[in-house]
Write a structure and sequence with these properties.
alpha/beta; Glutaredoxin; Arc Repressor Mutant, subunit A; Rossmann fold; 3 domains; 8-stranded mixed β-sheet; 18 helices; globular; binds S-adenosylmethionine; binds FE2/S2 (inorganic) cluster
């Protein structure tokens, strides 16, 4: 039974550079136009659009198939889509100009294509060349480094509403020859466009990477730039079993702290929209956010339950920044701050809920157990600790982001890492918490919850 009157499969397959593909021929633009035209025609509830992989007619892309008729359309440009919607989807008349009626020749063409692909795969397999999926991971750092340099030099702002390489180089005080090479590579990465000698921001880079952009994220992204040097010590850190970069082990400077807290704020403000509603605040009169950073979660908690006493605990060097973020949210009267070191200073007492977000990965198992015990003493009987972090499956190989993040902690901390649900539950139990449980969240993190009985 068909839930929709029409179901359209649009091939958006990308292939290695130099090979024909629907993606290279503008399938994304065709797809966007199709969705737009269907909505404009009021057919959203009657037509389902699904992207699909190679249909075997790559030279004639972008290709799409409309079911239930099984009409194959080839070389569908964005400007052709309105015709398909008005003729085929509205009136039930396939557009002969774009449709491929020749089923048997089409079948022959598709079979030949897949035979050719199979032969190339077998040839590459026999050649002993390092496969592309391995190479792509190996050289991932090159594209990443180009982007980090562009952000570090503030090149996107230098491009502004359009600039030549020489103009941008002058603005960022760099060499014109090398600046041009970086800008050209950014065009290849689709992060800039180029017309003649002039480079332009894309709508995306103008929004996030340019001074004054509507979601200017440059300060937060500088945190990634700072991580580069530490990640380059990964091999030595793996040998030693701990961070070896001297700067990883000393206190962050003022600029690095501001970038780090800005990065945390950006992520946490977004994540809080899913995390805070998932936490039951029934009966909670006072909440402590340990290592609360910018206060993004505290802000969301205070908004969810006005009148609840909310306190953010963080390092003395961070609290002035926390206060600024809280004041900007107009919640200076609702949220208290407390400066201290959570590993040795008193956390306070009388809390119904202690929230610990993105903290446990900084610490070793032993340090986490000690922290949980200290948190227990800050809680009222019946109070809960709610931990939010990357939580690995028990094999410790997924989620992918959590497994990779373990190494971010290796290069950045003495004993940090990412931990499995089993480990969290074990520490909670050892610290004397009851009713330990792991609660899934939408996204790569989870909650670990325990109750002080
Ligand atoms: C990864 S951030 C998490 C911030 C926030 N909880 C969130 O989820 O976005 C870690 C926070 O812990 C704070 N922190 C690190 N070590 C600390 C310590 N020993 N005592 C208190 N706060 C600490 C940092 O300043 C930072 O704000
Ligand atoms: S890439 Fe679309 S048909 Fe092959």
């Amino acid at each position: 039974m068909e839930p929709f009157k029409y179901h359209i499969f649009v091939c958006t397959q990308a292939k290695p550079e130099g090979m024909e593909s629907c993606a290279a021929k503008g399938a994304e633009q065709t797809l966007a136009a199709l969705r737009r035209e269907i909505a404009r025609a009021g057919l959203d509830s009657e037509v389902q659009v699904t992207t699909c992989g190679c249909l075997g007619l790559c030279e004639k892309g972008p290709n799409l198939i409309v079911y239930p008729e099984g009409t194959w359309y080839a070389q569908v440009k964005a400007e052709d889509v309105a015709g398909i919607v008005s003729e085929h989807l509205k009136l039930g008349r396939p557009v002969a100009r774009l449709a491929r009626p020749d089923a048997s020749s089409m079948k022959k063409e598709i079979s030949e294509h897949f035979a050719k692909v199979k032969a190339i795969k077998e040839f590459l397999e026999k050649s002993g060349l390092v496969p592309e999926e391995v190479n792509a991971v190996m050289r991932g750092f090159m594209e990443s480094r180009i982007m980090l340099t562009a952000v570090e030099l503030d090149l996107f702002s230098a491009i502004g509403v359009g600039a030549t390489a020489a103009q941008a180089a002058k603005t960022v005080k760099a060499h014109p020859r090398s600046t041009e090479a970086v800008l050209n590579a950014l065009v290849a990465l689709k992060l800039l466009t180029k017309n003649g000698e002039v480079f332009y921001n894309t709508p995306l880079t103008a929004r996030y990477l340019v001074a004054g952009g509507s979601d200017d994220s440059r300060l937060a992204l500088m945190h990634m730039v700072h991580l580069w040097r530490r990640w380059s010590t990964l091999t030595a850190a793996v040998r030693e079993g701990t961070a070896v970069a001297k700067e990883a082990l000393k206190k962050r400077g003022k600029d690095q702290t501001a970038a780090f807290i800005a990065a945390m704020h950006k992520n946490a403000s977004f994540a809080a929209k899913a995390v805070v509603p998932a936490i039951d605040l029934g009966g909670v009169g006072s909440l402590l956010d340990v290592g609360g950073g910018s206060g993004a979660y505290a802000i969301a908690f205070a908004r969810k339950k006005p009148g609840m006493k909310v306190t953010v605990f963080d390092l003395p060097g961070v609290i002035p920044l926390t206060k600024k973020y809280i004041a900007a949210a107009d919640l200076a009267d609702a949220i208290r701050t407390q400066a201290g070191d959570m590993t040795k200073d008193k956390l306070g007492a009388g809390y119904d809920l202690v929230f610990v977000s993105a903290i446990c990965h900084m610490f070793s198992p032993k340090e986490n157990l000690a922290l949980f015990k200290r948190i227990k003493s800050a809680l009222n009987p019946g109070g809960r600790v709610v931990i939010q972090d990357f939580v690995l499956d028990n094999a410790k190989t997924s989620p992918r982001m959590a497994a990779v993040f373990a190494l971010n902690m290796l290069v950045n901390t003495k004993g940090g890492g990412t931990y499995s649900g089993e480990e969290y539950l074990d520490w909670l139990e050892q610290a004397g918490f009851a009713e330990g449980k792991i609660q899934p969240l939408p996204g790569p993190t989870r909650l670990a919850i325990g109750k002080k009985s």
